[in-house]
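The records we work with from here on pair a chain with its fold. The integers have meaning only within a learned vocabulary of local backbone shapes. A complete example follows; check for yourself that the lines match position by position.

:::
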Amino acid sequence: MEEQFTWKKGVFSSLYKIYLNGEQIGSLKDKLFSQSITGILNGEEYVFQTKGFFKQETLIFDVAQSKVIGGIDYSGWMTRATITVNGKTIDWKYDNLWNTQWSIIDSKGIRIKYAGSSTSGKIESNVDDALLLLSGLFVTNYYWQLTIAILVVVFVPLLARMF
């Protein structure tokens, strides 16, 4: 059965709120430029911890089990990622040029589609999997933060020269 979720986040907020039928059922709590982000959905809690500098990867911890259950590897062009959880591999990718639509899919037909901006969006899922749903939102947040960091590194020196 396909379910439709929505999510909201303030412009400068670090908290994604996830809703189903208007009721908040989860969150993804981001700390600006933090290496650790907590996701909760339907009572399941996970921590995404990013490591590395040039070639980053993210470990996924199941809080209830107190162990690493997976990881995320990123492409160099910030357009794809591979999520591995309990031996399953799921592909994450942007679906349009403006990076406002993205999806995760595996070889068995599990598909979660996302659409949104930096402050709100919707999620359509044909699977009841809290971790996959949170992972798809996490990867997008990771790429958005990386894009902002690159823009700051490039444009702040240029602006400083102008003044």
In short: DSSP finds one helix and twelve strands in the chain. Helices lie at 130-162. The chain has one domain: 3-162. The longest strand covers residues 44-51.
